[in-house]
Design a protein that fits this description.
Blueprint: H1 6-10, H2 27-32, H3 38-46, E1 59-68, E2 77-80, H4 85-93, E3 96-99, E4 103-113, E5 117-128, E6 131-143, E7 150-153, E8 157-158, H5 163-166, E9 169-177, E10 183-194
Parallel strand pairs: 3-10
Antiparallel strand pairs: 1-2, 1-4, 4-7, 4-8, 5-6, 5-9, 9-10
Length: 197
């Protein structure tokens, strides 16, 4: 058996000691639990756990990856993740520009279909000339199916600054995985730093 590739190790979610993935239950099974408790049934309905919801295969559909900063007057920088694989491959070849030395946040929008997905995580590895310069991992949580997309914005970061940081571009690999090890997103994109957005 071949040894795992180092880059895949960087994109593997960290394990929390003592955490065990619970038994998977369908939306219908959860909706039918404690049927006699009226207040609990109302609470479940508010979460979208009605008996009509769910069914089918669990599916997470990533819609957008975006960068948000109060210093950007034009709004968010948005990467459309619903594009074809060939169009997504172009994201790495056409880096976006991030203003140097500013606070910004990364966020994603996604939909869940079919069944509940548990333990979604967003992992991002940033490399420059093949050397890892940053790695972030954010727990997104568990989500049930619903027609409206979910939006999650992560804690802010500060972009590097200076002439050395502005020379060259950065390669980013973003991945979304769940507790079952399913990879729902694995996309590469690029950015460069500039004096303006």
């Amino acid at each position: 058996m071949a040894a795992p590739h180092h880059e895949d190790d960087e994109l593997a979610p960290t394990a929390t000691e003592g955490y065990k993935v619970g038994q998977a239950k369908t939306v219908a099974e959860l909706a039918n639990l404690d049927k006699e408790d009226e207040s609990l049934q109302r609470w479940k309905a508010s979460l979208g756990l009605g008996t009509s919801g769910g069914g089918g295969q669990k599916k997470v559909i990533l819609k957008t990856l975006f960068l948000r900063s109060t210093t950007r007057k034009q709004g968010d920088v948005v990467l459309d993740l619903t594009q074809s694989p060939a169009e997504l491959a172009q994201l790495k070849k056409a880096p976006i520009t991030i203003k140097e030395g500013v606070d910004y946040s990364v966020g994603i929008t996604f939909s869940v279909e079919g069944e509940i997905v548990s333990g979604l995580r967003y992992i991002q590895v940033v490399k420059r000339t093949g050397i890892t310069v940053d790695r972030i991992e954010h727990m997104l949580g568990s989500y049930g199916p619903q027609p409206e997309p979910y939006t999650k914005v992560f804690a802010g970061e500060e972009s590097p600054s200076g002439m050395l940081a502005r020379s060259g571009s950065y390669n980013v690999r973003s991945r979304v995985v769940d507790d079952d090890g399913a990879v729902w997103l694995d996309v590469e994109w690029g950015f460069k730093l500039g004096k303006e957005w």
